[in-house]
Amino acid sequence: MKENDVVVIGAGMAGLMAAAVAAKSGKKVKLLSLGAGTLTIGGGIIDVMGYVEGNTPAATPSAGLLQVAPEHPYKKIGRPAIEESIRFFKEICEQEGYPYIGNLDEMQWIPTAAGTLKPTCLVPKTMNTAELKKASKVIVLGFESLKDFYPHLISKNLANIPGFTDKEYETVMIDPSLADGRDVTALDVARWLDTEEGLRDCTQKMRGVIKPGSVVIIPPVLGTSPDYRVAESLQNTLQCTFVETAAIPPSITGLRLQTMMRNYLRKLGVRIVEQALVAKSIVENGKCIAVITEGVDRERTYYANNFILANGGFYGGGLIAEPGNVVEPIFNLPVVAPADHELWANPALFSGEAQPFAKIGILVDEKMRPLDADNKVIINNVFVAGRNLCGYDFCFEKSGNGIAITSGYQAAMSVQGEKK
Amino acid sequence: MKKHHNNPDSCTACTVCVAHCPVTKATPKFRGPKMVGPALERMRLSQEDVEPSLEYCSNCKNCDISCPSGVPISTLNMLARAKYYKVRKQSTRDWVLSHGEQAAKMASAMPFGATMANLGMSMSRGIMKRIGISDKAPLPPYAATSFIKQFKALRQQSYPNKVVFYPGCFINYNDPQVGMDFVAVMQANKYEVIVEEDLVCCGSPLVVNGFLDEAEQNAKTNIQILKKWTDKGYPVITCCTSCGLMLKQEYQELFQIEGAHEYAKHLYDAGEFLLQLHDKGELNTDFATLNEKYIYHAPCHLRAQGMGLPSVELLDLIPGLEIENADAGCCGISGNYGFKDDKYEIAMKIGSPLFEKIKASGLETAVCECGTCRLQIGHGAKVKTMHPMTLVRKAYDAKKNK
User: Fold this and answer.
1) How far is A141 from chain B (nearest CA, A)?
2) Could you give the domains of chain A?
3) What's the gap in Å between the CA of A194 and the closest CA on chain B?
4) A305 vs B104 pLDDT, higher one
5) Which of A333, A395, B280, B315 has its CA 20 to 30 A from that of B331?
């Protein structure tokens, strides 16, 4: 438990990215996780900046980045590090055989299972919409008994969106024969396609309802592993272009992303401790010596030279809301929140206005170190990344994984900048 | 100390557990941890609500490990199963699989008992099949001499430092060599090992088949015996990760036994204990160079304990030794789950990514702490298997014999 260069707390996208960057530079990294992170309920795509203040779509992620407020984490991280982190992430994807497409100068508008479009930045190749945009005819393919993917709803809603109005839509269904006493999810269909028999069976059934040359919108079911084996097989055999939609959990694209990141970390020798509830820290003279986990049996102490705090916000347990007070439980860092807790939430749930609690979080400097009210660094060797940062609203602006990878990168790079 | 509360309302229905459940992946007959655990628990609290697919939960604990909200999903399932069997009778099969300790005791008490029992077992696979135990499952044979007997015959060097060893049924009756290797490793570190003969089965095989009251009795017996030592500050060590999980964690989650919380602080996995010695600079690191390579499988019941993979870190200290972490998920056996006729295929399907990974590695031997994982890996991947303590002992012995 001793002899770590870096201890990363949290195995969500920010923690995985921070661990990857630190380990890649030769650091000995231990990753403490409680739960598997929320990747399998997220979209598995990298949103960077979709909407700016006032719910206005940004023309490109780059344009969106120019318009963020001074307290926004992107302002701290800065454009060069944002670019480098995206390059780093795309290199991981290339190396793991699951390349993502996209860049900061182009907004990807991807179809969702509700037939809307969602702005994002980096997506797997199975979400490439280039052919979809050009197509005069679009097929929406559903699976019998699959919940939460209704081709008619999708085609009807898409047909109302500018750029999609003049297309012809056809909806088709195939039966994966998976209904056996429980609700069928996209995960079940993806696992069916993971198998050779399933892929053969599906190819056969698809051949009956789609013609070669078609552009086909499907739920995210093209296999569960981070590769394009299933997608390429279907596309080559059927000579069609498939476009996976964003969909509801359990997220297959998120599962692929999680598996890819964990595979990468394993190769770099990152040691993951699961079920590790980090509860306290030992800080002396502005330097963290160790963090302490509370197990059902006893406490365990993890020493390191540097610590990256990436254990999420209210959902992940990185921030805890109490009446009138928000607490960061491990280091007791100050949390920036409106003093009057009546102002944390917007009671008009469907008003289209942001929820103020989304921006509650920890204030950091450009190295991601926590700051006090006087903008002074509180602990020198603790770096904060991801959802527990203050000043951004991932849900409203569509920036979740973008903040995760850029702040995770910046936190790990700040570690490297420090002399031992 | 972590507060464990079995409140289903902490579940936000986020489905992370569904994505990580190996049984859900292998069979559509299981409705999944979210639904069968916390979602239905809300119904069960107000009325008896029987969910037939509950029997498919293997208690492997991957749901608990993955849950972002700290819900002990598998424990909710085990409590629901116990409630179900409060007013119903388990099958003969489930009784037999839960009470392996009693049969083993009989076999071990008679002269040539183990040989006779093994012979009987190979002849009676047909009968077992009829009561619902798979004739293909890798049932473990009894060892000729139990660990307790071998241990009593062993002359240990006495040292002021002492630890108490909890062998558990599998090491005691089926694979005593692991226990003997552990004792040798402790001796090499100038520790004397104490074994209490009156300890009973940890109760893990009882819990999974709904014999919760019996498991509680076992828990009380074990805690009473071990507390005598832990109260005086002696560490209690397990080499079996399922026993370890049961003794320290599940006793607290399932039962209200006074002192369980205090005694659990002194319970250690063998790998973790030795690694802690290393942290304190007290580990004997006089290892021979082993220019060997092995593939390692992390038992789910180790991963659930919040201490990482201590044996991997320990084995890393042996010069020349290379350990590849398979990291390919659950092996499927989950205690006695994979022995059941109607679960055998599911268990094999769950383990197939691991078997494939091990086969693809081209390595001859897989290293793993858990006895039943080792059986399943030997059966599914057709490789030899080994407990990490055997490898540590080998590194000490090779140096001594040089």
Assistant:
1) 23
2) 6-98+256-417 (3.50.50.60), 113-246 (3.40.50)
3) 11
4) A305
5) B315
